[in-house]
Amino acid sequence: MLSLFYAKTQQTIGSLGAKIIIFSITIEHELVSGAMRKFKMRKMSQEYLIHENKNRSLNHKGIYNMVSGTFEISLKPLESYAEGIDGVKLGRMSIDKTFSGPLSAVSKGEMLNALLPVEGSAGYVALEQVIGELEGKKGSFVLQHYGIMHSQGQQLTLEVLANSGTGELSSLSGKMNIRIENGQHYYDFDYSL
User: Fold this and answer.
1) pLDDT band at 160; cut points 50, 70, 90
2) Which residue spans within the chain are E strands per DSSP?
3) Domain map (residue ranges) of the chain
């Protein structure tokens, strides 16, 4: 599995410089020799530069990394200020995680959730502080969660809270996706330093 990243450069007039728009897609592909290859392609009269690389691509801040690994999670109910009415159940939980892989860390945080009377509908928000190493760089950062679920699907966003990084991770920004396969929790972390 490789990720293809491409940036479209739009020239602007005067002293405004160039505007770069970053896109990314993931495709099935055999690994080829060489860490990076460059291609040019034409699409609707626009020129694109494609970078092929398993882990990295360019973004507006410089190097953008993609890492994946596993994590263990423990959620425990906490006393909640509000309980909800009209069939809505409001809750509060503690979060304890242990991350393995390129992100070797532990985290602690809290979640607020709402279970709705309509089956399959719910939402949650959470904050957790992650402490450890990211590809050998030590420090901490805060992840902010926003999740909703309903009959038409679900949406989950985990994003590094701006200016929350410390130590060697002080300039960290990024987003994390989580997935569960055969009972195992995985993270896919796109980040920039």
Assistant:
1) very high
2) 2-11, 18-27, 37-43, 46-53, 56-59, 62-77, 89-100, 103-115, 122-134, 137-150, 153-160, 173-181, 184-192
3) 2-59, 67-192
